[in-house]
Design brief:
- This is Partitioning protein A.
- Keywords: Plasmid.
- This protein is α/β, with parallel strands linked by helices.
- The protein has eight helices and eight strands; from the N terminus they run βαβαβαβαβαβαββαα.
- Bound molecules: adenosine-5'-triphosphate and magnesium ion (MG).
- The site of adenosine-5'-triphosphate has 18 residues, from α1, β6 and α7.
């Protein structure tokens, strides 16, 4: 089982949206489990609205020891991938999740506020000894994407696949779906490309 963790100390950068999108895409390729360690529970609420029972969810765990135990239990259950959604804050639970990660995805919305959060986020991930990639998230203009990508490249690897800003993400989420599942072809292309890249990096 490969563990993919969504993490960044900047709130609202797209962690939960990307967690859902890649989870749904990965169910087309194997068995996927979700672990929501964000007390806000965005991923959990989405999962509860979802009608298809294709994703196993573990939620409501906040203590570090509970989280590492849950990951170990899932390892014995034949899942191909586990996706962990974390809160946008530095805490012990997130540190445990980072330590279990095969790959951490760090969504970065191209804005100064998100860029300012990159240093502390990267330090926390490095402390945990995890591999990570930046994923440009909620992007609009190509020029700003290029510029942000260049700045980020000084700190780590930047996924060539980006997640564009699309209203379809929020709309689909109200029905427990992803934008791709709701029929948004551009979002489907983006997530397929992102998942291909993520799998390639994890090897
Ligand atoms: N690619 C996108 N296009 C349009 N809207 C998006 C996109 N990604 C996220 N959003 C919207 O931005 C908001 C924040 O996204 P999301 O909840 O995924 O971020 P987060 O990093 O999980 O936030 P938090 O730190 O609060 O957990 C949500 O309203 C979501 O619908
Ligand atoms: Mg979230």
């Amino acid at each position: 089982m490969q563990v993919i963790v969504l993490a960044t100390q900047k709130g609202g950068s797209g962690k939960s949206t990307i967690a859902r999108s890649i989870a749904a895409e990965l169910t087309r390729r194997g068995r996927v489990a979700l672990l929501d360690i964000d007390p806000q529970g965005s991923l959990t609420k989405w999962w509860q609205r979802r009608e298809t029972e294709d994703l196993q969810l573990i939620t409501g765990l906040t203590r570090a020891d509970q989280i590492s135990k849950a990951v170990e239990t899932l390892r014995g259950q034949g899942f191909d991938w586990l996706i962990i959604d974390t809160p946008g804050a530095r805490d012990e639970a997130t540190r445990i999740a980072l330590r279990s990660a095969d790959l951490v995805l760090v969504p970065v919305h191209p804005s100064q506020d998100d860029l300012d959060a990159v240093g502390p986020t990267v330090a926390e991930i490095r402390d945990a000894g995890a591999n990570f990639i930046f994923v440009l998230s909620r992007t609009t203009r190509a020029r700003i994407v290029d510029e942000t990508g260049r700045l980020l490249a000084a700190h780590g690897r930047v996924a060539p696949a980006i997640v564009g800003a699309r209203v379809a993400h929020g709309e689909a989420a109200t029905r427990g779906l992803t934008a791709a599942e709701a029929g948004n072809a551009a979002a489907a292309d983006e997530v397929r490309e992102l998942v291909n890249y993520v799998l390639e990096v994890m090897g």
